Amino acid sequence: MTGYGKAEAILETGKITVEIRTLNGKSADINIKTQVLPKDKDIVVRHYLAQELQRGTIDFFATWEPNASESAKKINTEMVKEYYSQITGLRKELEGFSEVSASQSIMNNEVLTAILRIPDVIDTKKSDVVNDENWPIVEKAIQEAVAHVNEFRAQEGKILYKDVTSRVKNILALYDEVEKYEPERIATVKEKLLKNLEELNQKVDPSRFEQEMIYYLEKLDINEERVRLRQHCKYFMDTIDAEEAPGKKLGFIIQEMGREINTTGSKANHAEIQKAVVKMKDELEKMREQAMNIL
Description:
Strand content: 5-15%
Oligomer: single chain
Mean pLDDT: 85
Structural class: alpha+beta
Number of helices: 10
Order of helices and strands: EEEHEHEHHEHHHHHH
Strand order of the largest sheet: 1-2-4-3
């Protein structure tokens, strides 16, 4: 579910750059990291991202780059004129000047500079960047960014598919190895039991011994585990091939596969089978990690 997408919306007043980054996650955790969008559009974007991207930690960025003319601060000329008129009028009254001199011209510049420092003379208020008129352009950029994220995910998905399906094949191949040791395992168990009886110097009824042996070996039989594991592997492959977003279901199937492998290990009583079980567990753990990246 790792992905990245970027797109731009060119407006009359500037440019909005949309970026979307996604990481692994069980549900849709959406973070809108921008002040460009108004509140009503924020809700729309959240709904759209959840619908299209479904799962993961989703970070949405939108940055605003205004045109040069738009970024320049606006001077409130009417306010400047009013301040200037009042200040010059007051100065004339106090000093009795009626003519404009060269020194007075310099003073006028200083007055203007002082006026421009007065609050509200320079308009710093920003108008809404996104509105109903330009929203279709911004919305299209968001859709393009999401499309890029899904393209990124699709490429990653091909790699993940190849990896997890190869591990399913490895597990099946390892279980084939387990089956090869089955006759040897049974013979080893029988031999061990007979040796223990000899050491105890106990005479046993051969027919009763065979019955007990069969009962004992039934407890160590792994045929059911083998059948179930193969069925789980088939179900895994069917699910990943057929479903559009199989991630959660694959996690459940992997859990069931783990149970059969663990039970096989507990019944093994054979060094080589134990080694194969350890390898199967390693493959399964890697599958579990990768399944978290699948939608």
